Amino acid sequence: MTDPRLSVIEERLKGIDEIIAIASGKGGVGKSLVASVLALTLARDGNEVGLLDLDFTGPSTHIILGVKGIQPTEDRGVLPPVVHGLKYMSITYYSGENPVPLRGVDTSNALIELLSVTRWGALDFLVLDMPPGIGDATLDLLRLVRRIRFVVVTTPSQLAFETVRKLIALLEELKVPVVGIVENMKTDSSDSIQRRALEIGTRFLGEIPYDPEVESAIGDVGKLMGTRFTKAVEQIRNEMHL
Questions:
Q1: Where are the domains of the chain?
Q2: β-strands 73-74, 178-186 pairing
Q3: Degrees (nearest 5) of the Cα angle 213, 215, 218?
Q4: How many CB atoms lie within 10 A of CB 15?
């Protein structure tokens, strides 16, 4: 029997011009920070922007944004609250600070529920903070959401890039557009990640230098927007023509 929620998802997303998924091959590479800052800079420049945290196993965008004491409202679905100019949706509205031990069908069910109930309205951009790696949520998203483009985040680590290579190979096999690769936490002048990106035929969007000021700016959006990290994300935005 077909899940009736599936027919609602396309209706919920039809007012969105562009959907950008920020993904990574593994955790700990700064994917959520890139997603949050990208969404913030897009909104600051006058765009209507949504941010959807799909990293069910370790959601962190609410910590980055300093989201506290707000909840979505219900009106023929769920209306995301506006946080720092963003329409913001996360499973943490329902789970709080408790762990979310979802596996298999439970992950799929949570994803379908969020996509089918959330009323985004008209948006220029919807930024998705993806779970790391190639799991059920990623595969379900590719099945359920059309018009999605991926930006993949890595660190200078060769091990991190190897997981990125596998993720990009899957996306290309499924004919999902990959905008390019971002190298985060850059600490030296090596161009190894850029060269490896070219070897696999994927565009290198740019690098984000390691910025020690970022940690103290977590939860303080005003301070975060003044960091070198944000300036680097803005340059990457230019490469993406956003």
A1: 22-240
A2: unpaired
A3: 110
A4: 13
User: Which of 223, 228, 224, 191 has its CA nearest to residue 208?
Assistant: 228
Query: Which three-class secondary structure string do you get for 200-216?
Result: CCCCEEEEEECCCCHHH
- Please tell me whether residue 173 adopts helix, strand or coil conformation: helix
Contacting residues for 80 by C-beta, under 8 A, at least 6 apart: 50, 72, 87, 88, 89, 118, 119, 120
235: tokens are 């340059």
pTM of the model: 0.95
CATH class assigned to 22-240:
alpha beta
Q: Please provide the DSSP assignment of 67-115 as one string.
A: --S---EESSSEEPPEETTEEEEETHHHHTTS-----THHHHHHHHHHH
Per-residue pLDDT 10s for the chain (242 aa) are 578 888 899 999 999 999 999 999 998 999 999 999 999 999 999 999 999 999 887 889 999 999 988 899 999 899 999 999 999 999 888 766 665 655 667 778 888 889 999 999 999 999 999 988 888 888 888 888 988 999 999 999 989 999 999 999 999 999 999 999 999 999 999 999 999 999 999 999 999 999 999 999 999 999 999 999 999 999 999 999 99
**93's tokens:** 């509205």
* E runs forming strands in the chain: 16-24, 49-53, 73-74, 78-79, 82-83, 86-90, 123-129, 148-154, 178-186, 204-209
In sequence order, the β-bridge partners of residue 78 are: 74, 118
